[in-house]
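Sequence in, structure out. First:
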Amino acid sequence: MSDAFPPPPTEPEPQAPQQPAFTQPPSPWAPPAAPPQGQRRTGLIVTLSLIGGLVVTGATAALVYAFLQEASESFARAEDRVTSRYDTMGPEDEEGWEEFEELEDGEDFGEFGAPEDDGPPAEKDATITKCTRDSLINWMSADIKVVNGSTSPASYVVFVSFVDRDGDVVTEGLAVTDDDVAPGATARIEAQGLGEVPAGTKCRIDRVEREAMTG
């Protein structure tokens, strides 16, 4: 071979294919990957919204239960007043009631009747001091001040109507004094309406029962 010609190029040696680097599979006990920042913020908002909704629902249910309990107690006190009054005055059998009614209709009813109630009309003893529509459940209540204008200790039952702007009754309630009110003394009671009422509903005293107490 002449020195004038360069030697032929050598062919590159074939290289073995490179194996991919070994990666360890994720552990099934490993914590999940953190979500992107935007997803975490959205999840937090949803969680807080659900918690807030549960809190409001629980508060509403508790408030409704409290109002129902208060109204139930007022009705129970009024029923006890009426029951105790007639249990002490009325006979037990049917014939006795007939005689009792004859005595009641006669002029000499006297000591068998209810204690005489002196003083001004009972309606003048009760005044509504506050009429409120609850902002959460839209139920009505009326705060009432009772001043005994008679000369005897007395118990009171105040019947209240809640009327809308057209003057129509939308619900009713009653308030009962827990204890007998002394002459000239003041008692504060509350009448609770049941059910939702429209905005603009007002409170109105329909009737006041004053029962003079003796003994």
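Second:
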Amino acid sequence: MGKRVKIQLNVEASRLFQMSNPTQQDIHERCYLSDDNGGFSESGNIQDFLSNVYLTQEVEWEGVTDDAWYSIAIDKVVYDLDASNDDFEMCFGNDESDDLTIIGKGGVSGNVVATVKDRESLIGKQNVYKIHFSVHYKEESKSYLIDPKVEINPNNPGVTPKLEINPDTI
């Protein structure tokens, strides 16, 4: 059986928050992703981070920081229609509808939780999503985004993650 996957966005909150007009590169350099399922980035770049998720299982995005007095909220996760997704089949939602935007729980440290569809045609495909997050400090907050990927694997955490899309081999 597959398992629930937690993806953590780790932010150097104080450094990022103090920047008056950070570029996307500045944001990427002050954030990194990890998950509890062997997610990785071959290039070391956050935008190339790939999490392996499973059919019918939940995925949770959580924001964290080591900086005192700061907190990270995942505001929403949005399917990237502009990216080179494998196709336009979104992996989150249900059989009747796709979730283009998944809204977070709100607050200064809210998370986003979504369930991967139960659709075998998704196995081995990658989806690129934009993670919209905010850094909170005292009564202020600033918003940012990054765009990593998820790849859908069969409901077997022992399966070696695929790096190439090949829906004919499971």
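Remark: The first helix runs from residue 13 to 18.
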